[in-house]
Amino acid sequence: MTADAPPVVAVDKSQDSAPSRGVRAWLSRHPLAAYAIRRVGIYFVELWGALTIAFFFFRLIPGDPVQTLIQTLQQNYMYNQQASTELIARYQQEFGLTGNMFSQYLKYMEKLVLHGDLGPSLINYPTPAQDVILRALPWTIGLLGISAVLSWILGVILGAIAGWRRGKLGSAIATNLSIALSHVPYFFVALILVYIFAYSMGVLPARSAYDSNISPGISLEFIGSVLKYGLLPGLSIVVIGTLSWILSTRMLMVPVLGEDYLVYAEAKGLKGWRILTRYALRNCYLPQITAFGISLGFIFNGNVLVEQLFNYPGLGTTLVTAIQQLDFNTILGVTDIAIFSVLTAVLLLDLLLPLLDPRVKYWK
Amino acid sequence: MNNVPGNVSESVLEIKGLEVVYSTNRGDVKAVRGIDLDVRRGEILGIAGESGSGKSTLAVALLRLLKAPGKVTGGSVLFNPAGRSPVDLLKVHGEELRVLRWSALSYLPQGSMSSLNPVMRVEDQFKDVILEHAPERKSSLHEMIPRLLAQVGLEPRVARMYPHELSGGMKQRVLMAIAVALEPDLVIADEPTTALDVTIQRVILQSLADLRTDFGVTLMVISHDMGVHAQLADRVAVMYEGQLVEVGDVRQVFKDPQDAYTRQLIESIPKLGRRAS
Amino acid sequence: MTMRFLNAVLRTIRNSRRLAAGLVILGVMVLLALFSPLIVNAIGGGKDPIEVAAYEKWLVPGAGHLLGTDQFGRDVFAMVMKALSVSLQIGAIAGIISTVVGVIVAFVAGYKGGWIDGILSTFTGILLVIPTFPLLIALSAYAKNVTLFQVGVMISIFAWPFAAKTIRSQVLSLRTRPYVDLARVSKARDIEIIVTELLPNLLPFIGVGFASSALGAIFGLVGLEVIGLGPGGVVDLGQIIYNAITTGALTLGAWPMFVVPIVLLTLLFAALNMVNIGLEEVYNPRLRGVAGE
């Protein structure tokens, strides 16, 4: 969309004196396209900025991955000899550690952008880090994605009802519970759930993502097992996630309830549920769509702990394992993937927004 | 009060001893202090008074839209919709009240307020209220909405627009069209021309008068502007500090105001050729 | 001046039961932390109750040991008291650093506007949106035997954007108020306007910024500790939870070892959040009474 827009313009307004004026005229006639182009531009700046911050952050931390690798190799293969200079040089080459920091950065970005190559991983040497990450990615997307969306839907609906019925006991309980618990780590809930359901009652598994006796594949048995094993980690995210969405939705809802169009809807004699959904909720849920995208990074942070506790084979566990073994490429790769996913999700939601919201002029 | 049920009464609304109080931390403030007033079928009744005189509170109380800390503390409001049995508006609740709304008792708010739902197309704001109270008209909606819009001088394409795409005058017209969509017995209009351009005010007033002729609705018009009443109303009731100080035929009142306050209000109308000081 | 400030504080607290409740809970916790050396001594009754093998291992909660003992025979209650004090100190250190950085960034960005605001806001925004926990873990992995203060500084690197965001939006809204314009006309220097006109009006929001940064910092450290990647040498409440998990307290039914730290931290998070929402409710007219009575 971004790429083909300007050429079309030039043809369109060929009679115009300057082509730049033509672009501007076209953009002013297509405000949504202008908004989209601008937003995509910001996305690339943010993405580049975030990946750069991450790269230099890890490079500036002391620690030598090649030394670590050689130590690991020596332990694993009983290498007795001292690492030769050539061997070190070869590994340095392979891990992209030659030259100064800036040329390392350029090389890293080139490989990442052009080839999707994150370099070899240490924990699974010589498997490339991207393969290690791609193996873990579906688990995290499944666990985190489903829990995050579910929390959002539940929280927005319950929060709207809590705002709608403000002053009632149920609303007060939900609100105060949300205030008390919305900043609690998912991990706490996970621990309590594990203690109750896995250790005390023994009804649900406390570790792993599926029953190791069942071979992975598209079978009902396997899917059932995945769901069963995913229940506790998912629930720990959903409980806290829902509470925090309840609180923020209620805060958006209450000012809307004082609006003239709600009084008008009441005067129209519409049914309560209809006023709640079509008038009140429709006018306050839009900021929550943006907020959802922004919350994903935060949810990812909390999800790392949950995965680690349940030994869930997703990105979080991969990250912790990689850090324990100082596997730079994998750590940076997981961070890059998380940054990319979150920023892309925010971008897509922002592009979706003008289609849902007729009010806002997006070309400003 | 002594209507024979089934007979169409002369009065649409009979207000008796209505009292409304706002409770504040410094005690209760009486906004409406014992009002008796009849609204006759088919008439346009103007309610005049300065801001704070209680005229808007009266409207909100009659529409049963009064919110805390406001509270009706006394009186009765007998409502006689055609084809239904008379009810005391202050005593109906829940579903009974909801069914009465719009098809019998409708509301025309000030257009400059954000009474239209900003995220719904105009046509959907017609549809929801029509389908709620008259679902049998579903099949005729496609011709009904353009006809209603035409009635207030709007083009059919307005139906597809969102409120933020409309001017203040257009919004007021849309609200008028929605108000009469179900041919209610009584429309209560709260400051229908306030905050509009003077030229547009005249047009809106003309449209309101036309609506009465075309739909035969009874209209209660609340306005601080005596000019509006002079141009539109049949009768006018003047409120001051929560009480009615004068009720009468609009010409009578203008020609020979009985109350000193009414006289002041009339004198405040800017006259042509002479600047209001 | 101080009297006026105190009066304002009192009036604010009276206006919000939620804020008052949050401050009371925080106050009680701070008192507990301040007296934690005394409490620990009292439990020990002469000896150090958190020394390895001070008592028998895995004692169940009872009169002698309110919360039992752990795998090394240490008194869990004494450990929790000491760890609470550490968690609070981390929150305070990181909260103060983050707030100072946040205030500076917010003022430079919000007050100066233009491209400086553009760059700073984008940077703050990026740090708020991207998952920063991997960065924090990596940083922590290299911090062995660090002091409490160093840990606070480390955590602040990721906690300041919370404060900066809250305060910047307030600076933006205050900047356009008439009295600031008036001050601009009558006074020449920005710093004077900031100190005399903007800062007093921003105090509540600086409070909100402090509370959210402190919350984020404690949250972050607990996160590091519970996966065993916390900086060495600091025993906070998260560390106790980590011990409980790794030593099998869950399977052994030694629930106080993880339930009590969790409850304390939950209370702490709740109190900080109550302060946050209470302050916002009192000072942000749009939200007045919004979170509900």
Note the topology.
The complex is a heterotrimer of chains A (364), B (277) and C (293).
Chain A: H1 5-12, H2 19-29, H3 31-60, H4 65-77, H5 85-94, H6 101-115, H7 129-164, H8 169-181, H9 186-200, H10 220-257, H11 260-267, H12 272-284, H13 286-310, H14 315-324, H15 328-356
Chain B: E1 11-24, E2 27-40, E3 44-48, H1 55-62, E4 70-79, E5 87-88, H2 94-100, E6 105-108, H3 122-133, H4 141-151, H5 168-179, E7 186-190, H6 198-215, E8 218-222, H7 226-232, E9 235-240, E10 243-249, H8 250-255, H9 260-267
Chain C: H1 2-15, H2 17-34, H3 36-44, H4 76-112, H5 114-129, H6 133-141, H7 148-175, H8 178-186, H9 190-226, H10 237-246, H11 249-252, H12 256-283
Describe the structure in brief:
The complex is a heterotrimer of chains A (364), B (277) and C (293). With 364 residues, chain A is mainly α.
Structure commentary:
- The complex is a heterotrimer of chains A (364), B (277) and C (293).
- Chain A is 75% helix and 0% strand.
- Chain A contains 15 helices and no strands.
- In chain A, helix 9 crosses helix 13 and helix 13 runs antiparallel to helix 15.
- The N terminus of chain A is likely disordered.
- Chain C is an all-alpha fold and 293 residues long.
- Chain C is elongated, with a radius of gyration of 22 Å.
- The interface between A and C is large, with 60 and 50 residues.
Strand order of the largest sheet of chain B: 6-7-8-3-9-10
Helix percentage of chain B: 25-40%
Supply the number of helical segments of chain B: 9
Relative strand content of chain A: under 5%
Query: What is the C-alpha radius of gyration of chain A, as a whole number of Å?
Result: 26 Å
Q: Which structural category do the helix and sheet elements of chain B fall into?
A: alpha/beta
Shape of chain A: globular
- Oligomeric composition of the shown chains: heterotrimer
End-to-end span of chain B in angstroms?
46 Å
Coarse morphology of chain B: globular
Number of beta strands of chain B: 10
Low-confidence stretches of chain B: 1-7
**What string gives the helices and strands of chain A in order?**
HHHHHHHHHHHHHHH
Q: Regions of chain A with pLDDT < 50 over 5+ consecutive residues?
A: 1-18
Sheet bearing the most strands of chain A, described?
A: none
Number of helices of chain A: 15
The pLDDT mean of chain B sits at: 85
